[in-house]
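Quick question, first post here. What does this chain look like in 3D?
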Amino acid sequence: MKKIFILMLSLSLVACSSSDSDAPTPTPTPVPDDFIRAVDVSFLPLIESEGTIYKHNGAAQNALTTLKNAGCNTVRIRLWKNPIDAVSSLPEVKTLAARARQAGLKVWVTVHYSDTWADPGAQTTPVEWQSLSFTDLKTAVANYTSTILTEIQPDIFQIGNETNDGLLWPQGKLSTNEAQSLQLFQVASAKIRSQSPSTKIMLHYAGTSGSDWFFNKVSSINYDYIGLSYYPIYHGKNLTTVLNTMNSLGSTHNKKVIIAETSYPFTLGYNDFTNNVVGLNNQLIPEYPASNEGQKAFVLAIKNLVKQSSHGIGFCYWGGEWVAFRGPTSSNGSSWENQALWDFNNNSLPVMDAFSPN
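> Answer (accepted):
Ran it through. Tokens below.
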């Protein structure tokens, strides 16, 4: 009897072992990649149209492919209402957004609500809207916002660009027409929420100083992300101040915070005759020299700083594609080629490593 029992036990163990080995290995659930690692590529269509070839390891490679392979998961694209040429127009942005999605990238559209650059010093109402009453201006904003949602379907919709003092001046200037400014933000936000509930809404401020004033003013607006521009040349060289600002704003307003624009030079040299924005040692943070490794170290520092904040959601590199694309003697080429993500031979730089998911 004892022998029979032992035999049956052995058979049972063999059966269990066989059953276990035949069981399929469970597929791990993928972890959502929620940390935004973005690059603004707004000039890419123009630069490509003039014959520029981007490279990786010395071989020609689509710039979006290089970014995706490096770990970038989102592209930021500037949109102007009626630009004097096709650059940053709705058709161009729509085409670039489709390319980005095909490359596996999310789309973040920066809607300037202007025909040209909008920033803290200029928020010029599109010519088409300049004679409108305020009531009609709100309708125009709502209709235009709806068109963008229909045509582009962005993952992130940034209402205005560096709107430190509102948008659509003079009617929407925050310091002089606060009620109207807030109504314009609200009109755009409400249209996005009703038409595309899954789209994330961003409000954008340049720098850290005064950011508490702005985000207190717009606290009634329905939005998701606080966006901050941070350039050492304009906004100071203390990264601790940036971190403290992110923490304070995120905590006060219960929002996620992103460094929506930043950049850094890999050299103080130049590759065309267009004056560069950054070209002097005293414009740098001493710990980060203007070198390949210095540029990479700076972007890694920004990435890690955002990750340190419990409110941080990501970062975006601005002007990464803006190489000197019109030749070495061009006076209307790039003021940013020494801060691009590709070197003076259009080969991708070590800074690309900073976009790794790790």
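The radius of gyration is 25 Å.
Residues 83 and 115 are 5 Å apart (CA to CA).
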